[in-house]
């Protein structure tokens, strides 16, 4: 058993993620914390590829610009797109590769995956980054197929982390018990509906955000749900308007979406769902979400001319590693921080 050690001094990050001091990056390069994090990124990268290929998925290259963003079109999202001009072209940095992966499924019908940066216009804090590494995949099949894929994926990641660096993590961070519990979980993770989740935590103030036409769980609600149900729990069929338009209807009345989030660690760590396969239902959903169809004309055309039932998910790798390391500040995970940079080019470029 790796689990608990009697180490009195745990390895900690040097906490220079927001520093513009000229020697901050040297501190990072000399820190054993970032040496460990670098090794864990490598484990995740390799294991993701091995697992995806074992399921028939292919890794496809996509550009780091897009004119069709995904997240801002849900009423429950606080994220904004990040506009840029590249070689005179007005475009966005990608907030997700989801649409590109759906496109890729038409070229690779067995599914495809990517590990690439995502950019979101929100203020970073202990649990959020606005630039992070996104592990995403789109698979042929339903929401249940996606959940089965992710169950196996995160357990494969946990097993690989333990095999390659379990003793080191236990010695430097004090425990790997939580990673061992995930790796050893033979049965599927617990799964409940969003309505059930609301009933389970709704007795405590501040756990459910209710906007009338849609509801969502707060971070407090996610954590209480894990305490009351299980440390690994899927929640599916959220209120339709709390998730983006491309998630398929979860019921005939269109009240819920065929989506699911996997909660562990700090809360939501994986988010995914099944896409609309009926073009008229897609258009109805766009209207309900107040989305201009012309801004997604190619997507609607693709769904009309090349129909497929696909489902996909995304997981922030930094959030997964934060859980592996039993750490409480995601800003200490990226190997090369982009926090608190000078808005304009400085006279001397002192950060990599």
Summarize the SSE layout with pairings.
Blueprint: H1 24-29, H2 32-54, E1 58-59, E2 82-86, E3 89-93, H3 98-107, E4 112-119, E5 131-140, H4 143-173, H5 177-184, E6 190-193, H6 194-201, E7 208-210, E8 215-217, H7 219-228, E9 233-236, E10 259-264, E11 267-274, H8 279-288, H9 297-305, E12 310-316, H10 317-324
Parallel strand pairs: 1-4, 6-9
Antiparallel strand pairs: 2-3, 4-5, 5-12, 7-8, 9-10, 10-11, 11-12
Helix pairs in contact: 2-4, 4-5
Any overview of this molecule?
It is built from ten helices and twelve strands. It has helices at about 25-30, 30-55, 100-105, 145-175, 175-185, 195-200, 220-230, 280-290, 295-305, 315-325; strands at about 60, 80-85, 90-95, 110-120, 130-140, 190-195, 210, 215, 235, 260-265, 265-275, 310-315. The strands form three sheets. Strands 1-4-5-12-11-10-9-6 form an eight-stranded mixed sheet. Strands 2-3 form a two-stranded antiparallel ribbon. The chain starts with about 25 loop residues before the first helix and ends in a 28-residue tail after the last helix. The mean pLDDT is about 95.
């Amino acid at each position: 058993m790796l689990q608990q050690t009697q180490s009195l001094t745990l390895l900690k990050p040097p906490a220079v993620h927001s520093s513009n001091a000229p020697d901050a990056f040297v501190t990072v390069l000399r820190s054993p914390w970032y040496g460990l994090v670098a090794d864990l990124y490598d484990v995740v990268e390799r294991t993701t590829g091995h697992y995806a290929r074992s399921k028939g998925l292919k890794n496809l290259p996509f550009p780091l610009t897009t004119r069709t963003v995904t997240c801002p079109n849900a009423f429950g999202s606080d994220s904004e797109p990040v506009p840029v001009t590249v070689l005179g072209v007005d475009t966005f940095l990608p907030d997700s590769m989801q649409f590109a992966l759906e496109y890729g499924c038409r070229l690779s019908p067995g599914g495809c995956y990517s590990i690439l940066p995502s950019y979101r216009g929100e203020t970073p804090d202990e649990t959020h980054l606005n630039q992070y590494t996104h592990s995403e995949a789109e698979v042929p099949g339903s929401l249940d197929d996606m959940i089965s894929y992710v169950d196996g994926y995160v357990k494969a990641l946990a097993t690989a982390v333990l095999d390659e660096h379990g003793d080191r993590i236990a010695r430097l961070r004090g425990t790997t018990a939580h990673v061992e519990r995930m790796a050893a979980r033979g049965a599927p993770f617990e799964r409940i509906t969003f309505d059930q989740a609301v009933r389970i935590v709704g007795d405590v103030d501040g756990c459910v955000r209710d906007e009338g036409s849609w509801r969502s769980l707060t971070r407090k609600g996610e954590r209480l749900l894990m305490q009351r149900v299980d440390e690994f729990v899927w929640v599916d069929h959220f209120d339709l308007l709390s998730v983006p338009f491309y998630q398929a209807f979860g019921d005939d009345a269109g009240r819920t979406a065929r989506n699911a989030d996997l909660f562990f660690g700090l809360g939501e760590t994986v988010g995914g769902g099944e896409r609309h396969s009926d073009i008229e239902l897609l258009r109805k959903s766009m209207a309900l979400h107040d989305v201009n169809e012309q801004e997604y004309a190619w997507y609607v055309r693709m769904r009309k001319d090349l129909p497929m039932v696909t489902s996909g998910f995304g997981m922030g790798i930094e959030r997964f590693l934060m859980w592996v390391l039993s750490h409480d500040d995601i800003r200490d995970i990226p190997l090369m921080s982009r926090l608190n940079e000078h808005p304009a080019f400085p006279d001397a470029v002192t950060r990599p």
